């Protein structure tokens, strides 16, 4: 089978790495990819939102399956476009434009959860039409208050306010001053939930599903979960507090009602569902849905899946996800992300990355923001590399991830040394 994978991050390198090991994958293209994906297949020079270039690439290379890594092309309707403009039978991993609203619109996702009795924080939604009602709602709301831009805002659209004054000012900035552009024309105001977060993933064909290994990611730039939010500084899998009893609740209260909801609402969804969950007491609540895999979670989830990934994805795309089961590696997987100094604020790019060849003995270094220049590999983004390792214990896996990064160097390289800190006795 000839496969086209869209995206350019650590997630896509992990997917490309796994796809290229499949006996069913005869040729793999990645667009636009990075220097890591170039080791697994052929990088193509177009971006994930260039629908016409994607269609042309499928025609020129007789692509059988397209796997869509990031959310933007999904929310913009790439799946519908390829079905109508190319081939209704093309195998596609990713939901339709309508179903991708589960990530593309917080209000859509909240209404879906409410309709299907899926546990989530209580909420109300507001626009400029009912702005005054929003102000009145905020004035009587318990603190802290969670404000969410409805649309995609590159992970920045959520504000948690400790004071009513701040919440009112942010609410006004979002709706009246378009703080997040079109994305904040509508704002979801929701109850604050206090608990510990985890990410749960399934592959679904819209009727059946397979539960993948769960993970926990670390979003803040600083040690001890301090400082600004980032795209993700590391991840671990399995998650020690996600025991069988809790995961059974996740399945019966969240996953199964969601899949039934897709069916009831007649949504065309063939791909990954990412449940951003929070454990409050012993109960799971949905913070958000994403219509794709997580990054950096993929870098620990994929290495723990022993199945042939192409077999799983083919069954998903064909709506035949029955009689299959996930074979998990029982070991712990960890990934630590090396970022450019200054990230998530301003940072420089173009620094040579040294020591990559020495770093692979005990794990896998997935590339994220890397590119080739003058025969060298240089930094080209905020998140640069993800050092993944597997071991019998979390402590050991973390030590291996860190040892890999100790072999690598680029100017102003930074990584957190405390990933997984709540689950280990001492830092590796
Ligand atoms: P989201 O973009 O929806 O994933 O939200 C970003 C982050 O904000 C989440 O990962 C949580 O840490 C936090 N968050 C979102 N909604 C809530 C909530 N209702 N209660 C507490 N924290 C929240
Ligand atoms: N790790 C969170 C995300 O991929 O959105």
Give an overview of the whole structure.
By secondary structure, the protein is an alpha+beta fold. Among the domains are: 2-96, Rossmann fold (3-Layer(aba) Sandwich), CATH 3.40.50; 128-185, Dna Ligase, domain 1, CATH 3.30.1490. It contains twelve helices and 23 strands. Strands 12, 15, 18, 19, 22 and 23 form a six-stranded antiparallel beta sheet that branches. Helix 7 (131-139) runs antiparallel to helix 8. The mean pLDDT is 95. The structure holds adenosine monophosphate and glycine. The site of adenosine monophosphate has 11 residues, from strand 9 and strand 17.
CATH architecture of one domain: 3-Layer(aba) Sandwich
**Rg for CA atoms:** 21 Å
What's the overall average pLDDT, rounded? 95
Q: Could you give a short account of the major beta sheet?
A: 6 strands, antiparallel
Query: Roughly what percent helix?
Result: 25-40%
What name is given to the CATH topology of one domain? Rossmann fold
Measured between the Cα atoms of the first and last residue, the distance is: 42 Å
Q: Which structural class best describes the helix and strand composition?
A: alpha+beta
| Count of individual beta strands | 23
Poorly predicted runs? none
**Shape by Cα distribution:** globular
Strand content: 25-35%
Attached small molecules: adenosine monophosphate, glycine
């Amino acid at each position: 089978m000839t496969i086209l994978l869209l995206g350019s991050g650590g997630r896509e390198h992990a997917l490309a790495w796994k796809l290229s090991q499949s006996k069913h994958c005869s040729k793999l293209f990645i667009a636009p990819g990075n220097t890591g994906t170039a080791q697994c297949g052929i990088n193509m020079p177009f971006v994930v939102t260039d629908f016409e270039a994607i269609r042309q690439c499928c025609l020129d290379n007789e692509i059988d399956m397209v796997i869509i890594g990031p959310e933007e092309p999904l929310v913009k309707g790439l799946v519908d476009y390829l079905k109508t403009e190319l081939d209704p039978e093309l195998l596609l991993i990713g939901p339709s434009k309508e179903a991708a609203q589960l990530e593309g619109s917080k209000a859509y996702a909240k209404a879906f959860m409410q309709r299907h009795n899926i546990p989530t924080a209580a909420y109300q939604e507001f626009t400029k039409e009912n702005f005054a009602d929003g102000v009145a709602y905020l004035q009587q709301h318990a603190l802290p208050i969670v404000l969410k831009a409805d649309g995609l805002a590159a992970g920045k659209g959520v504000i948690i306010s400790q004071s009513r004054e701040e919440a009112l000012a942010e609410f006004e900035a979002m709706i009246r001053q378009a703080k997040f552009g079109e994305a904040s024309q509508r704002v979801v105001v929701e109850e604050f939930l206090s608990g510990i977060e985890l990410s749960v993933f399934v592959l679904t064909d819209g009727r059946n599903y397979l539960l993948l290994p769960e993970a926990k990611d670390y979003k803040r730039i600083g040690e001890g979960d301090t400082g600004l939010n980032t795209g993700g500084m590391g991840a671990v899998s399995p998650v020690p507090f996600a025991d069988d009893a809790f995961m059974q609740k996740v399945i019966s209260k969240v996953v199964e009602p969601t899949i039934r909801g897709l069916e009831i609402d007649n949504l065309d969804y063939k791909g990954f569902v990412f449940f951003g969950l929070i454990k409050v007491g012993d109960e799971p609540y949905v913070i958000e849905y994403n219509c794709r895999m997580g990054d950096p979670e993929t870098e620990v989830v994929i290495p723990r899946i022993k199945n042939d990934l192409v077999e799983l994805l083919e069954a998903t795309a064909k709506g035949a996800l029955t009689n299959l089961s996930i074979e998990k590696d029982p070991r712990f997987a960890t990934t630590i992300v090396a970022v450019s100094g200054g990230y998530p604020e301003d940072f420089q790019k173009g620094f040579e990355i040294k020591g990559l060849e020495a770093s692979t003995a005990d794990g896998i270094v997935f590339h994220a923001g890397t590119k080739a220049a003058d025969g060298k590999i240089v930094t080209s983004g905020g998140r640069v590399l993800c050092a993944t390792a597997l071991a019998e214990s979390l402590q050991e896996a973390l030590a291996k991830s860190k040892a890999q990064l100790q072999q690598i160097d680029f100017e102003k390289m930074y990584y957190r040394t405390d990933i997984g800190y709540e689950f280990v006795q001492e830092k590796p």
